[in-house]
Amino acid sequence: MSVEFLVASAIGALTAAGIYLTLRGRTFPVVLGIAMLSYAINAFLFSMGRLVVDQPPIYDPEAAGYTDPLPQALVLTAIVISFGMSALVVVLALRAYLESGSDHVDAEPKDQAMPRDGRHKGEGDAR
Amino acid sequence: MNLMIVPILVPAIIAALCLFRPIRLSRWARRLSLGSTLVILISALLLFLSARDGTISTYELGDWPAPFGIVMVLDRLSAMMVLLTSLLALAVLGHAVMTGLDRRGWHFHPLFQFQLLGLNGAFLTGDLFNLFVFFEVLLIASYGLMLHGQGAERLHAGVKYVVVNLVGSTLFLIAVGILYGVTGTLNMADMAQRVAEASPGDQPLIRAGAQLLMAVFALKAALLPLHLWLPQTYARTSAPVAALFAILTKVGVYSILRVTILIFGEDAGAVAWAPAGWMLPASILSIAAGFIGVLAARRMRVLSAFAVIGSTGTLLVAVSVFEPAATSAALYYLPHSTLAGAMLFLVTDLIVRGRSEGEDWLRPGAPFAGMAQLSALFLLAAIAMAGLPPLSGFIGKLLILDATAANHAAPWIWGAILGGTFLAILGLARAGSTLFWKSADGEMIPGAKALQPRVFVPAWGLFALLAALTVFAGPASDYAEATVQQIYDRGAYIDAVLGTDRSGS
């Protein structure tokens, strides 16, 4: 099997798993799904520079050819951003769970019916 | 032309300064934040003046030549967007400071500055991956701002907002990856050239990349059916933040305009105007969904959020026709739509603060202090939002109707815009009469604090901008027309970015 087939099927499997998990109803699978999606994207971006074996990305006087260095830089940026975002979404999901006691993505605070007394407070009074 | 970097560099430095503990806890955070916003406003004005004569100036970061390094590009469209952002930011920041919203958490000012950094960067960059990075900057700041003040409701809406936008960013990366893989460049001007020269075998991939990219921008612009995140997010966050977010949907609109016309424009062969086919019906449906939502809303912030969807839909109808006349009408309507949406949110916030226990349900309550002035403000904001004369919304809608009259979809466009306006009038009139007339009888809440007169200033300021847009409608639409000529003249943009006689560096 060629390297291309392996990389492509790995990206496909990761994306499929990511999409499935992102569509789940609880926040934990959703977070995992987003992590999977971001792994898939990292591999995808990397392979967009074409898969080259054993070639340097930067100048080397003895090199016969080069691999594209730009996707590697892009992947680095994407990794940093997705790592930070995963951390944020984990903390956010935890806080939402702790504050409302439900980790369902669709957990609705009871505001569908108009309350008789004004329970929904605003931001507080003007100074 | 190094002034171009000021709207990006200043907020970055000030945001970092505001994070320091001694500054964060003192009055200096406010002063620094206000000062930085003023500096950005002044530099935006200067940039606007310098771009007015039609020169496209570029600034190469680190002096790397254009297709290899990152380049900032300033033309009329970018200058207009940066100026609009800074005007809106000043009003919102003023409102947040005067109502004490910024004291309800530690990091309001740094987040606000990072938000400005992301917005200005997105408007000024000439590089597709850089656009992604600035999108991320503004989104990350918006996550923080959206959660500012906290509460269980806001956290739950925040989880959804963050997840939706993370998926959006993922799609953005896929699209950028595909386009880079096919064209081998990320510079927008360079990509425009390469897409025009692409071989037939590459065109399906470019097409896929283009559609994905447009889907992401449509998600930011809250185009139907990608609008579902918006009402909850805007209704659950604090109203001044939602007012600032009125420009976030316009980042999507700006990106659609810039990328489609430049890269996937008429020279692009088989991929030319790729998104136009589905964007027009989707934006017509957005108008319907937005203004029906206005009519159905039972909370004031939900009402304002749906009004933003409807108004952005109106804007996108004019954009998705992709004809110069319609685009110029859209560029006149764009600042109006932003300012009107923001004003509606600020007025909503003032009303919620004035009412008993700060409730934002649309139901009669006890009368409250400052009702007279608030009802006047609400009336003006409603007129602006619905697009009634004499304010600029009317002129903007008229321009859009006029520009689309010859289009094959004209009956649909006219029906949607006029029907949407009618629904908006009904919804806003119902809300206003419930809030002000039905509340007017009954007893005043004992001991209710009156709002200080100065908290009304930012909302009146936004109204003054709308009035200026109405009074100077002639020069404004001339500017929009000149802008459209400039952005449809792709050769000039490409020459300015890649050519040898660069005015920058």
Automatic annotation (TrEMBL), chain A:
Keyword Heme tagged: no
Main location (coarse class): membrane
Keyword Cell membrane: yes
Membrane topology: Multi-pass membrane protein
One term under GO cellular component: plasma membrane
Organism domain of life: Bacteria
Location relative to the cell: Cell membrane
UniProtKB keywords: Cell membrane, Membrane, Transmembrane, Transmembrane helix
InterPro entries on file: CPA3_antiporter_subunitC (IPR050601), NUOK/Mnh_C1-like (IPR039428)
Family to which the UniProt record says this protein belongs: Belongs to the CPA3 antiporters (TC 2.A.63) subunit C family.
Record-given protein name: Na(+)/H(+) antiporter subunit C1
Encoding gene per record: mnhC1
TrEMBL record, chain B:
Organism from which the protein derives: Croceibacterium atlanticum
Protein name as it appears in the record: Na(+)/H(+) antiporter subunit D
GO CC annotations, alphabetized: plasma membrane
Record family assignment: Belongs to the CPA3 antiporters (TC 2.A.63) subunit D family.
Xref: PANTHER family: NA(+)_H(+) ANTIPORTER SUBUNIT D1, NADH DEHYDROGENASE
Entries under Pfam families matching the protein: Proton_antipo_M (PF00361)
Native organism taxonomy: Bacteria, Pseudomonadati, Pseudomonadota, Alphaproteobacteria, Sphingomonadales
Residue ranges occupied by any NADH:quinone oxidoreductase/Mrp antiporter transmembrane domain in the UniProt entry: 126-420
GO-annotated molecular function: NADH dehydrogenase (ubiquinone) activity
Locations listed in the record: Cell membrane; Membrane
This protein's encoding gene: mrpD
Membrane topology type: Multi-pass membrane protein
Keywords tagged on the record: Cell membrane, Membrane, Transmembrane, Transmembrane helix
